[in-house]
Amino acid sequence: MKIALFAATALLPFAPIAAQDAPPAEAGEATAAKYTLDTPIEALAADPAAKAVLDKHLPGTTTHASYDMFKTMSLRTVQPFSGGAITDEILAQVERDLAAIK
Asked: Which of 61, 15, 65, 24 has its CA nearest to residue 41?
C-alpha cells in the first residue's frame, strides 16, 4: 500500500505537464475529419448530416433487417460482407461527403 501511494505521489510533479492541452491548430492547418469510414455506423446514423450521407449513397442502411447486427461496425468493416453492394467507389463518395461534415 505504501509503495503504491509513493509511486502515485512520485508522479504528481509531472501531472501538469501531461494534462496540458494540445496547441490550437495553425491557420490553414487541416483538421481531422469528424467522421471517417472507420466510424461505427450507429454513430453516423445518430448525426443527421452523416445519416444523410448514408441515405444518399447507401439507402436503406439504417432500416436494413440486420442493422442491429452490423451497426457497431464501420463501413470499411462491413464492405467485405456486403456481397458487392458497398463498392470502393461508393466508399470513396461516402468518405468525401463525410469529410465535408464539420
From this structure: 61
Maximum alpha-carbon separation in the chain: 60
Kindly report the number of other CB atoms within 10 A of residue 39's CB atom. Answer: 17
Q: Could you tell me the residue ranges of all domains in the chain?
A: 41-99
Q: Would you say 63 and 24 are in contact if contact means Cβ atoms under 8 Å apart?
A: no
Which residues have C-beta within 8 Å of that of residue 94, sequence separation ≥ 6? 37, 53, 54, 57, 58, 75
Q: pLDDT per residue over 9-65, tens digit each?
A: 444 444 444 445 555 555 555 567 899 999 999 999 999 999 999 999 999 999 999
94 three-state secondary structure: helix
pTM: 0.69
